[in-house]
Amino acid sequence: MALKFGGILGFDNGIVLAPMGPDVAGPKLVAAVANAGGIGLLASPSNNYDMTQKAITETKRLTSKPFGAGILLEFENTRTVQAIFDEKLACLQVYWGDYPKEMVDEAHKNGVKVLHQIGSIKEAEKAIAAGVDCIIAQGVEAGGHIIGTIGLIALLPRVVDVVGDKDIAVVAAGSITDPRCYVAALALGAKGVCLGTRFIASKEAYAHDYYKEQLLHYTEADTDRTDLYSRASWRAPVRCLNTPFHNQWKNAPESAENNDEQPIIGYSVIYGGETVLRRFAGQVPNPTTSGELENMVYYAGQGVGLVRDILPAAEIVQNFVDGAKKIIKEFNEKYNPPESVPAVPLTSS
Ligand SMILES: Cc1cc2nc3c(=O)[nH]c(=O)nc-3n(C[C@H](O)[C@H](O)[C@H](O)COP(=O)(O)O)c2cc1C
Predict the structure, then answer these.
(1) Torsions phi, psi of 180, nearest 5?
(2) What single DSSP character describes residue 41?
(3) Domain spans of the chain, in order of start
(4) Domain 15-206+307-330 sits in which CATH superfamily?
(5) CB-ligand 1 contact for 282 (6 Å cutoff)
(6) CB-based contact 67:90 (threshold 8 Å)
(7) 340 CA → ligand 1 middle, Å
(8) What is the pLDDT of residues 164-210, one digit of tens each?
(9) Is the CB of 19 under 6 A from ligand 1?
(10) Which tens digits make up the pLDDT trace of 221-250?
(11) pTM score, two decimals?
(12) Pocket-testing residue among 15, 16, 20, ligand 1, by greatest number of atoms within 8 A of Cβ
Protein backbone atom coordinates (compact mmCIF):
# COMPACT_ATOMS: atom_id res chain seq x y z
CA MET A 1 0.00 0.00 0.00
CA ALA A 2 1.32 3.46 -0.89
CA LEU A 3 1.71 5.99 1.96
CA LYS A 4 -0.47 9.07 1.49
CA PHE A 5 -1.11 12.19 3.52
CA GLY A 6 -3.08 15.43 3.49
CA GLY A 7 -5.17 17.86 5.52
CA ILE A 8 -7.21 16.94 8.59
CA LEU A 9 -10.31 18.33 10.31
CA GLY A 10 -11.00 20.60 7.33
CA PHE A 11 -7.57 22.27 7.43
CA ASP A 12 -5.18 22.31 4.46
CA ASN A 13 -2.54 20.15 6.12
CA GLY A 14 -1.98 17.96 9.16
CA ILE A 15 0.49 20.14 11.04
CA VAL A 16 -0.78 21.15 14.48
CA LEU A 17 0.83 23.83 16.64
CA ALA A 18 0.73 22.69 20.29
CA PRO A 19 -0.96 25.27 22.55
CA MET A 20 2.20 26.00 24.50
CA GLY A 21 1.72 27.88 27.72
CA PRO A 22 1.83 30.12 29.43
CA ASP A 23 1.88 32.24 26.27
CA VAL A 24 4.53 30.78 23.88
CA ALA A 25 1.81 29.88 21.36
CA GLY A 26 0.50 33.44 21.16
CA PRO A 27 -1.41 35.29 18.43
CA LYS A 28 1.58 35.81 16.06
CA LEU A 29 2.59 32.15 16.05
CA VAL A 30 -0.97 30.85 15.83
CA ALA A 31 -1.76 33.19 12.93
CA ALA A 32 1.44 32.24 11.10
CA VAL A 33 0.60 28.53 11.36
CA ALA A 34 -3.02 29.16 10.35
CA ASN A 35 -1.93 31.21 7.35
CA ALA A 36 0.29 28.30 6.32
CA GLY A 37 -2.72 25.95 6.36
CA GLY A 38 -1.96 24.26 9.69
CA ILE A 39 -3.97 24.04 12.89
CA GLY A 40 -2.79 26.84 15.16
CA LEU A 41 -3.81 26.45 18.81
CA LEU A 42 -3.57 29.40 21.18
CA ALA A 43 -2.37 28.78 24.72
CA SER A 44 -5.28 30.12 26.78
CA PRO A 45 -5.08 32.16 29.96
CA SER A 46 -6.61 30.24 32.86
CA ASN A 47 -10.35 30.86 33.32
CA ASN A 48 -10.26 34.40 31.99
CA TYR A 49 -12.88 35.49 29.45
CA ASP A 50 -11.45 38.94 28.64
CA MET A 51 -7.82 37.88 28.21
CA THR A 52 -8.85 34.90 26.10
CA GLN A 53 -11.02 37.11 23.92
CA LYS A 54 -8.18 39.64 23.62
CA ALA A 55 -5.74 36.99 22.39
CA ILE A 56 -8.34 35.66 19.93
CA THR A 57 -9.11 39.16 18.60
CA GLU A 58 -5.40 39.82 18.15
CA THR A 59 -5.03 36.54 16.25
CA LYS A 60 -8.01 37.30 14.04
CA ARG A 61 -6.34 40.59 13.10
CA LEU A 62 -3.42 38.55 11.71
CA THR A 63 -5.31 35.79 9.92
CA SER A 64 -8.66 35.17 8.29
CA LYS A 65 -8.06 31.41 8.48
CA PRO A 66 -9.62 29.17 11.15
CA PHE A 67 -7.69 28.35 14.32
CA GLY A 68 -8.28 27.01 17.83
CA ALA A 69 -7.21 27.26 21.46
CA GLY A 70 -6.19 24.85 24.20
CA ILE A 71 -7.22 24.54 27.85
CA LEU A 72 -5.81 22.55 30.74
CA LEU A 73 -8.48 20.45 32.42
CA GLU A 74 -6.48 20.45 35.66
CA PHE A 75 -7.86 23.96 36.28
CA GLU A 76 -11.29 25.60 36.21
CA ASN A 77 -11.69 27.08 32.74
CA THR A 78 -15.41 27.73 32.20
CA ARG A 79 -14.84 31.40 31.33
CA THR A 80 -12.04 30.64 28.90
CA VAL A 81 -14.16 28.03 27.14
CA GLN A 82 -17.08 30.48 26.92
CA ALA A 83 -14.84 32.99 25.13
CA ILE A 84 -13.68 30.25 22.74
CA PHE A 85 -17.32 29.38 21.95
CA ASP A 86 -18.43 33.02 21.65
CA GLU A 87 -15.56 33.77 19.30
CA LYS A 88 -16.54 30.73 17.22
CA LEU A 89 -13.08 29.21 17.05
CA ALA A 90 -12.71 26.13 14.89
CA CYS A 91 -11.20 23.90 17.58
CA LEU A 92 -10.83 23.43 21.30
CA GLN A 93 -7.85 21.37 22.47
CA VAL A 94 -8.17 19.81 25.93
CA TYR A 95 -5.47 18.18 28.03
CA TRP A 96 -4.83 16.68 31.46
CA GLY A 97 -8.18 15.27 32.48
CA ASP A 98 -11.56 13.98 31.35
CA TYR A 99 -13.75 15.87 28.91
CA PRO A 100 -17.05 14.01 29.05
CA LYS A 101 -19.67 13.62 26.32
CA GLU A 102 -21.93 16.47 27.54
CA MET A 103 -19.04 18.89 27.19
CA VAL A 104 -18.00 17.58 23.78
CA ASP A 105 -21.66 17.85 22.68
CA GLU A 106 -21.74 21.44 23.94
CA ALA A 107 -18.63 22.25 21.88
CA HIS A 108 -20.18 20.65 18.82
CA LYS A 109 -23.38 22.67 19.32
CA ASN A 110 -21.15 25.74 19.16
CA GLY A 111 -19.54 24.51 15.97
CA VAL A 112 -16.24 23.76 17.72
CA LYS A 113 -14.28 20.56 17.09
CA VAL A 114 -12.65 18.89 20.11
CA LEU A 115 -9.06 17.66 20.11
CA HIS A 116 -8.11 15.70 23.23
CA GLN A 117 -4.42 15.18 24.01
CA ILE A 118 -3.88 11.91 25.88
CA GLY A 119 -0.97 9.74 27.02
CA SER A 120 -2.55 6.30 27.49
CA ILE A 121 -5.06 3.90 25.95
CA LYS A 122 -7.37 4.33 28.94
CA GLU A 123 -7.59 8.05 28.26
CA ALA A 124 -8.00 7.44 24.51
CA GLU A 125 -10.96 5.14 25.17
CA LYS A 126 -12.65 7.80 27.31
CA ALA A 127 -12.09 10.42 24.60
CA ILE A 128 -13.56 8.10 21.96
CA ALA A 129 -16.62 7.45 24.16
CA ALA A 130 -17.03 11.21 24.61
CA GLY A 131 -17.16 11.66 20.84
CA VAL A 132 -14.11 13.86 20.24
CA ASP A 133 -13.04 14.76 16.70
CA CYS A 134 -9.34 14.21 17.19
CA ILE A 135 -7.05 12.41 19.59
CA ILE A 136 -3.54 13.71 20.04
CA ALA A 137 -1.39 10.82 21.26
CA GLN A 138 1.42 12.31 23.33
CA GLY A 139 4.54 10.22 23.84
CA VAL A 140 6.75 10.53 26.90
CA GLU A 141 9.46 12.09 24.71
CA ALA A 142 7.36 15.27 24.40
CA GLY A 143 8.40 18.66 25.73
CA GLY A 144 6.44 20.50 28.44
CA HIS A 145 3.94 18.63 30.62
CA ILE A 146 3.78 14.92 29.89
CA ILE A 147 0.74 13.03 31.07
CA GLY A 148 1.87 9.50 30.16
CA THR A 149 4.90 7.30 30.49
CA ILE A 150 4.83 5.51 27.12
CA GLY A 151 7.00 6.22 24.09
CA LEU A 152 5.22 7.46 20.96
CA ILE A 153 6.21 4.49 18.80
CA ALA A 154 4.45 2.13 21.24
CA LEU A 155 1.46 4.35 22.03
CA LEU A 156 0.50 5.72 18.62
CA PRO A 157 -0.34 2.51 16.71
CA ARG A 158 -2.29 1.28 19.75
CA VAL A 159 -4.35 4.47 19.72
CA VAL A 160 -4.87 4.08 15.96
CA ASP A 161 -6.12 0.54 16.61
CA VAL A 162 -8.61 1.51 19.31
CA VAL A 163 -9.92 4.35 17.12
CA GLY A 164 -10.38 1.84 14.28
CA ASP A 165 -12.64 3.12 11.51
CA LYS A 166 -14.31 5.83 13.62
CA ASP A 167 -14.22 9.32 12.19
CA ILE A 168 -11.56 10.54 14.61
CA ALA A 169 -8.27 11.96 13.38
CA VAL A 170 -5.29 10.61 15.30
CA VAL A 171 -2.40 13.05 15.64
CA ALA A 172 1.08 12.25 17.00
CA ALA A 173 2.87 14.45 19.55
CA GLY A 174 6.31 14.14 21.06
CA SER A 175 9.69 14.90 19.51
CA ILE A 176 8.31 15.47 16.02
CA THR A 177 10.94 17.92 14.85
CA ASP A 178 11.59 17.14 11.19
CA PRO A 179 9.73 15.73 8.17
CA ARG A 180 11.13 12.24 8.75
CA CYS A 181 9.32 12.14 12.09
CA TYR A 182 6.12 13.24 10.30
CA VAL A 183 6.37 10.37 7.81
CA ALA A 184 7.16 7.92 10.61
CA ALA A 185 4.00 9.04 12.42
CA LEU A 186 1.98 8.59 9.22
CA ALA A 187 3.42 5.10 8.83
CA LEU A 188 2.23 4.32 12.38
CA GLY A 189 -1.28 5.37 11.37
CA ALA A 190 -1.46 9.03 12.41
CA LYS A 191 -3.14 11.55 10.12
CA GLY A 192 -1.25 14.54 11.47
CA VAL A 193 1.47 15.69 13.84
CA CYS A 194 1.45 18.14 16.75
CA LEU A 195 4.65 20.14 17.19
CA GLY A 196 5.76 22.04 20.25
CA THR A 197 9.54 22.30 20.54
CA ARG A 198 10.11 22.79 16.78
CA PHE A 199 7.76 25.81 16.80
CA ILE A 200 9.45 27.44 19.81
CA ALA A 201 12.45 27.88 17.49
CA SER A 202 10.37 30.05 15.16
CA LYS A 203 10.48 33.79 14.58
CA GLU A 204 6.88 34.22 15.77
CA ALA A 205 7.01 32.15 18.99
CA TYR A 206 6.42 34.31 22.06
CA ALA A 207 9.52 32.95 23.75
CA HIS A 208 12.63 34.81 24.92
CA ASP A 209 15.44 34.81 22.33
CA TYR A 210 17.65 33.11 24.91
CA TYR A 211 15.18 30.18 25.01
CA LYS A 212 15.14 29.88 21.21
CA GLU A 213 18.96 29.97 21.12
CA GLN A 214 19.31 27.35 23.85
CA LEU A 215 17.29 24.88 21.78
CA LEU A 216 19.98 24.98 19.09
CA HIS A 217 22.66 23.80 21.52
CA TYR A 218 21.00 20.78 23.17
CA THR A 219 20.46 17.23 21.90
CA GLU A 220 18.24 14.24 22.59
CA ALA A 221 20.62 13.29 25.41
CA ASP A 222 20.10 16.58 27.23
CA THR A 223 16.49 16.61 28.43
CA ASP A 224 15.03 15.41 31.72
CA ARG A 225 11.60 14.27 32.88
CA THR A 226 11.08 15.95 36.22
CA ASP A 227 8.49 17.41 38.59
CA LEU A 228 10.83 19.99 40.09
CA TYR A 229 8.98 23.04 38.72
CA SER A 230 5.79 24.82 39.82
CA ARG A 231 5.21 22.30 42.63
CA ALA A 232 3.38 24.91 44.72
CA SER A 233 0.53 25.19 42.19
CA TRP A 234 0.65 22.06 40.01
CA ARG A 235 2.97 19.15 40.74
CA ALA A 236 3.23 17.26 37.47
CA PRO A 237 5.97 15.80 35.28
CA VAL A 238 7.45 17.93 32.54
CA ARG A 239 10.30 17.45 30.09
CA CYS A 240 12.85 20.25 30.09
CA LEU A 241 16.39 20.96 28.99
CA ASN A 242 18.99 19.55 31.35
CA THR A 243 20.67 22.92 31.79
CA PRO A 244 23.51 23.36 34.31
CA PHE A 245 20.90 24.88 36.68
CA HIS A 246 18.53 21.94 36.26
CA ASN A 247 21.33 19.44 36.62
CA GLN A 248 22.38 21.03 39.90
CA TRP A 249 18.86 20.93 41.41
CA LYS A 250 17.09 17.98 39.78
CA ASN A 251 17.53 15.77 42.84
CA ALA A 252 16.38 18.47 45.25
CA PRO A 253 14.18 17.17 48.09
CA GLU A 254 10.40 16.95 47.65
CA SER A 255 10.08 20.01 49.87
CA ALA A 256 11.80 22.23 47.27
CA GLU A 257 8.79 24.18 46.01
CA ASN A 258 8.56 27.45 44.15
CA ASN A 259 7.05 29.10 47.24
CA ASP A 260 7.81 32.38 49.02
CA GLU A 261 10.89 30.86 50.65
CA GLN A 262 12.64 30.61 47.29
CA PRO A 263 14.67 33.58 46.04
CA ILE A 264 13.24 35.76 43.29
CA ILE A 265 15.05 34.98 40.04
CA GLY A 266 13.17 37.22 37.63
CA TYR A 267 10.04 38.93 36.37
CA SER A 268 7.69 38.36 33.44
CA VAL A 269 4.59 39.99 32.07
CA ILE A 270 2.17 37.15 31.32
CA TYR A 271 -1.21 38.01 29.77
CA GLY A 272 -0.73 41.60 30.88
CA GLY A 273 0.00 40.67 34.50
CA GLU A 274 3.34 41.31 36.25
CA THR A 275 4.58 37.91 37.44
CA VAL A 276 7.33 37.33 39.98
CA LEU A 277 9.42 34.28 39.13
CA ARG A 278 10.86 32.45 42.10
CA ARG A 279 13.38 29.63 41.86
CA PHE A 280 11.69 26.51 40.38
CA ALA A 281 8.88 28.56 38.79
CA GLY A 282 7.20 26.67 35.95
CA GLN A 283 6.83 29.56 33.51
CA VAL A 284 9.27 29.52 30.60
CA PRO A 285 10.71 32.93 29.70
CA ASN A 286 8.84 35.10 27.19
CA PRO A 287 10.24 38.24 25.51
CA THR A 288 9.35 40.40 28.56
CA THR A 289 11.24 38.20 31.02
CA SER A 290 14.18 39.70 32.91
CA GLY A 291 16.46 38.25 35.56
CA GLU A 292 18.54 35.11 35.87
CA LEU A 293 17.61 33.54 32.54
CA GLU A 294 20.09 30.71 33.04
CA ASN A 295 18.27 29.63 36.22
CA MET A 296 14.82 29.33 34.64
CA VAL A 297 13.05 26.29 33.20
CA TYR A 298 13.18 25.48 29.46
CA TYR A 299 10.62 22.92 28.30
CA ALA A 300 11.72 20.86 25.30
CA GLY A 301 11.15 17.42 23.82
CA GLN A 302 13.83 14.85 23.05
CA GLY A 303 13.61 15.83 19.38
CA VAL A 304 15.48 19.04 20.26
CA GLY A 305 18.64 17.54 18.69
CA LEU A 306 17.06 18.07 15.27
CA VAL A 307 16.24 21.73 15.92
CA ARG A 308 19.08 23.56 14.22
CA ASP A 309 17.60 26.88 13.11
CA ILE A 310 15.11 29.54 14.02
CA LEU A 311 12.75 29.89 11.06
CA PRO A 312 9.52 31.67 10.21
CA ALA A 313 6.70 29.33 11.27
CA ALA A 314 5.32 29.19 7.72
CA GLU A 315 8.66 27.84 6.55
CA ILE A 316 8.56 25.12 9.22
CA VAL A 317 5.09 24.07 8.05
CA GLN A 318 6.13 24.14 4.39
CA ASN A 319 9.33 22.18 5.10
CA PHE A 320 7.26 19.50 6.83
CA VAL A 321 4.74 19.24 4.00
CA ASP A 322 7.33 19.33 1.19
CA GLY A 323 9.78 17.12 3.07
CA ALA A 324 7.15 14.48 3.79
CA LYS A 325 5.98 14.52 0.16
CA LYS A 326 9.55 13.98 -1.01
CA ILE A 327 10.23 11.13 1.40
CA ILE A 328 6.95 9.41 0.53
CA LYS A 329 7.59 9.81 -3.20
CA GLU A 330 11.08 8.32 -2.88
CA PHE A 331 9.74 5.55 -0.65
CA ASN A 332 6.93 4.70 -3.05
CA GLU A 333 9.34 4.69 -6.00
CA LYS A 334 11.66 2.37 -4.14
CA TYR A 335 9.16 -0.02 -2.60
CA ASN A 336 6.06 0.35 -4.85
CA PRO A 337 7.51 0.74 -8.35
CA PRO A 338 4.91 1.08 -11.11
CA GLU A 339 3.96 -2.26 -12.70
CA SER A 340 7.18 -3.43 -14.32
CA VAL A 341 7.24 -2.90 -18.05
CA PRO A 342 7.21 -6.26 -19.85
CA ALA A 343 10.71 -7.12 -20.90
CA VAL A 344 11.37 -6.42 -24.54
CA PRO A 345 12.12 -9.79 -26.12
CA LEU A 346 15.66 -10.07 -27.27
CA THR A 347 15.83 -10.39 -31.00
CA SER A 348 18.50 -12.49 -32.57
CA SER A 349 20.57 -10.58 -34.99
C1 LIG B 1 6.92 25.22 26.24
C2 LIG B 1 5.82 24.19 26.18
C3 LIG B 1 4.61 24.48 26.79
C4 LIG B 1 3.55 23.56 26.69
N5 LIG B 1 2.35 23.90 27.23
C6 LIG B 1 1.27 23.11 27.00
C7 LIG B 1 -0.05 23.53 27.37
O8 LIG B 1 -0.23 24.58 27.97
N9 LIG B 1 -1.09 22.73 27.04
C10 LIG B 1 -0.91 21.55 26.36
O11 LIG B 1 -1.88 20.89 26.03
N12 LIG B 1 0.33 21.12 26.04
C13 LIG B 1 1.41 21.87 26.32
N14 LIG B 1 2.67 21.44 25.93
C15 LIG B 1 2.82 20.08 25.37
C16 LIG B 1 2.41 20.05 23.92
O17 LIG B 1 1.01 20.02 23.81
C18 LIG B 1 2.94 18.85 23.12
O19 LIG B 1 2.46 17.65 23.63
C20 LIG B 1 4.46 18.78 23.07
O21 LIG B 1 5.03 20.04 22.85
C22 LIG B 1 4.89 17.84 21.95
O23 LIG B 1 6.23 17.50 22.08
P24 LIG B 1 7.44 18.31 21.40
O25 LIG B 1 7.60 19.55 22.23
O26 LIG B 1 8.57 17.37 21.52
O27 LIG B 1 7.04 18.63 19.99
C28 LIG B 1 3.74 22.33 26.04
C29 LIG B 1 4.99 22.04 25.47
C30 LIG B 1 6.02 22.95 25.53
C31 LIG B 1 7.33 22.61 24.89
Answers:
(1) -65, -40
(2) E
(3) 15-206+307-330, 209-303
(4) Aldolase class I (3.20.20.70)
(5) no
(6) yes
(7) 46
(8) 999 999 999 999 999 999 999 999 999 999 999 999 999 999 999 99
(9) yes
(10) 999 999 999 999 899 999 999 999 999 999
(11) 0.95
(12) 20
